[in-house]
Every structure is written in structure tokens, then in C-alpha cells.
Amino acid sequence: MSEPAIRTIPAETGDAQALITALAQAARVAQRQLAALPSAARAAALHRAAEALRAATPAVLEANRRDLAAGRAAGLSAAMLDRLALDEGRIAGIADAVIAVAGLPDPVGQVIDTSEPPNGLKFQRIRVPIGTIGIIYESRPNVTADAAALCVRSGNAALLRGGSEAVHSNRAIHAALVEGLVAGGVPAEAVQLVPSQDRACVGAMLTANGLIDMIVPRGGKSLVARVQADARVPVLAHLDGINHTYIHAAADPAMAEAIAVNAKLRRTGICGSMETLLIDSLYPQAAALVAALIEAGCEVRGDGRAQALDPRVIPASANDWDTEYLDAILSVACVDGLDDALAHIARHSSAHTDVIVTADTDAAERFLAEVDSAIVMHNASSQFADGGEFGLGAEIGIATGRLHARGPVALEGLTTYKWQVRGSGQIRP
Predict the structure, then answer these.
(1) Which of 3, 6, 140, 403 is the most buried if burial means most Cβ atoms within 10 Å?
(2) Residue 375, phi then psi, degrees to nearest 5
(3) At what angle are helices 167-183 and 39-55 packed, to 10 degrees?
(4) Looking at the domain assignment, is residue 330 inside a domain?
(5) Can you name the residues that pair with 302 across neighbouring β-strands?
(6) What is the pLDDT of residue 400?
């Protein structure tokens, strides 16, 4: 694969602030050009990018092998290595996600509402791109493609800063995407990967107020905490996925077991993985449920009543209820009814995804109404907490806050709005 013909900015300027300023200034120029492209042109360019990524599969796999080797040498956990690993199927899935984003309805220019007061002025509120989006992420190289596709489709420039553990994979994916985007008429600077792993670049991005319009952190608790503490740029935060599944007294045992095992063990290293299982004290198959999880390869840590269900349950510490394991480890607590479950979730949930399994419709509806999380589910695995599963094509993250966007953030979450006012000579009395 040939290198895309793009203007390069030296990776080592000796000044992280100067580097980020140069990248962000270039991004702002490119974003105006990108936003002016017709929707069909942006979609077509994403198709070209997906084709280029497929063609670059051997190069991406070779880059990923380098990252995996370095990760093993550095002692990364099995869950972290799983998040990092690519194969032909995963690369094809990444390209498919780019195509899916290209086929989504374009939110830019969408009329949110209109009004016309008696003075004859015509007011419209329309969706517009946010501008330049800085994405700071760890481990998962698919974020490079997902973020690029979502930003291009919604008319935003992307400034990407991936983690050092995926540096070679990110660079290979980015090079392929830019080659396709440039062939499709998108300015190369509309999607830039910070060419330095200097941690000072993160700080420079967080303080680039006026150059970067929004920061999206995707990574561990320490990364998100640093971003929230240091940012002078608005942040769309994605906190821990401390996700609960509550097995209600009226849960179907076969369904409860299938959902619990899938929610914890399908992929333990993703943010939608269940971290705490709450079992109603009146649920009749509690011991069988815990045994099924242990026999499937999960380490179970529990409170006193959970330990009484199976001698293999390890005592839980106070910290376990607030831990995102991202591993085959699960906290289990027994609760006395729906009120007790709701209270436990209110104390310990990170407001990401919480689930109830029950055949009692009234209990389910109360749970859906009262749990204040970005995603609340009934009779489904928390592993569905994914933008693709929500029909969004891909996601730039799952926002757990309460402002602007919440849950899986895709195209609409990457827009803001402006007012257009059309008059016929009115003056204000």
C-alpha cells in the first residue's frame, strides 16, 4: 500500500503544545472543507476508505503482530490483549462498520424544529457539526476507524491520539483510511493521528480551547479521570462500565443463566461486560446460577449469602462492588427484593448499563423507570451495549453523563445546532 499524499507535520518538534496546535489548526481548515462537501460525497469517501482498509489487511495484521508481541512482553492481561488483537475477521468487521456509518442518515442540515411568530420572522433550528473532535483512547485499534468514520460522516474533523500499546496498528489503519478518504475528495487533515506518543500531547489536547471543540476519552478509569480533571475543552465522558444484572425472583431460570453467562463471559474486556450480579433472595435457582458461572471459567467473589450458595465463592471486599474487572471475575450479592436491588445499583453503578431479568412486567417497568443509567435493559445481556447493536453503525463512545448525549454516541451525538432566522425587513420595536 502506498503512503497517502498528505501534508506531514513532524512528530518530534520538541514542543507538544506546538505539535497539537499545528495539527488542530490544520484540522479546523479541513473541517470547513469537509462540512461543505455534499452528504453523498462524504458517504462515497467512506466507501473508498473501507475498500482501502480491506486492501491493507496484510499490513494491518503485521502491525498488530508487533503490538501484540510488545503487549505480551509488557505483561498486558488476557482481556487487554483481546481488546488489542486483530485478525482478518475483525478487520473485515471494522471495514463493514465504516460502510454501515456511510449508509446512515446524515444528521447535518436536519431541521430540528421551526416556528413563525406573528411578526413574520421564520425560525429554524438545524443540526450542524461540532467542529474538531479530539479522541483520546487506549488499546482498541478499531476506535481509529470508528471515530474517523463517524466524524467524517457528521462533517467533523477528527484528531486521534491512540494508546502506545496499539501504536503500530493505529498507524496502519489510519494510513489506509486516509488513502481512501483522500481518493474520495476528503482533505487528509480531516482525520489526523497524533504522530507522537509523548504523554504531553494529551495534556496539550486537553488545553487546546478554541482549537479543539470537544474531547472524547475512551479508556480506563485513570485516563478518564485525568481528562475530566485537566480538560479546558468540553468533554464527552465515558466512565467505568460497572454494569449490574439483577436476577429477580420471577426470572426464568434458563433465561437467567444464559443471560448471566453471556453478559460476563462473551467478551470480558469490553465496557458492556457485567461486573456485578445481584440475585434475589427468593430466586429459586441461585446456587445453580452461581455454579454455572464458576464452571464456565469465572472467578466469583461474593457477600456472605453468595458464599453460602457455593463453597468456591471467594469473599468479596468492599472495593469489589466498585471495580470494573474487564476480566473473568464477577462480584455477586444477594438482595432482598427490587428495592434492595435498586439501592445497591444506586450506590455502585457507574450509570453505564444495568439489567433486570424477570417475567414480572411490573417489576421490569419499575426497574427501567427508576435506574438512572445511560442504558437500562430487561431480559437481555448487557453485552448489547454497543452502538452497532443499537443500529447506530458504530459509536465514538458510551456517554455516562447527563448532558448533550447519553448512551452510545454516534452521528447525532457529534452534532450541535444553530438557529437560522429568515425575515422580510422586520425591526424590533
Answers:
(1) 140
(2) -130, 125
(3) 130
(4) yes
(5) 315, 332
(6) 85
What integer pLDDT is reported at residue 1 of this predicted model? 42
Contact residues for 417 (Cβ-Cβ < 8 A; gap 6+): 112, 125, 126, 127, 128
Q: Which DSSP state fits 313?
A: P
Helix axes 39-55, 88-102, angle to 10 degrees: 170
In terms of residue numbers, what domain contains 251? 243-384
10: in domain: no
Task: Spell out, as residue ranges, where the chain has pLDDT lower than 70.
Answer: 1-14, 239
Q: What is the DSSP string of 2-43?
A: PPP------S--S-HHHHHHHHHHHHHHHHHHHHHS-HHHHH
DSSP string across 89-112? HHHHHHHHHHHHHHTSPP-TT-EE
Q: CA 363 → CA 256, 341, 355, 421, distances in Å?
A: 15, 11, 12, 48
d(C-alpha 242, C-alpha 352), whole Å: 7
pLDDT given at position 8: 44
Question: 397-410, pLDDT tens digit by residue?
Answer: 888 887 778 888 88
CA distance 325 to 316: 13
Report the number of distinct structural domains present in the chain: 2
Sign of CA dihedral 261, 267, 272, 274: positive
Q: What is the Cα–Cα distance from 306 to 300, expressed in whole angstroms?
A: 9
Q: Per the domain annotation, does 3 fall within a domain? A: no
Lookup: cell for 334: 444477594
Alpha-carbon distance of 1 to 58, in angstroms, equals 10
CA dihedral sign of residues 383, 389, 393, 398 = negative
Q: Is there a single domain that holds both residue 359 and residue 417? A: no
CB distance 422 to 122 below 8 Å: yes
Rounded to whole angstroms, the Cα distance separating 64 from 144 reads 13
Q: What pLDDT score does 14 carry?
A: 60
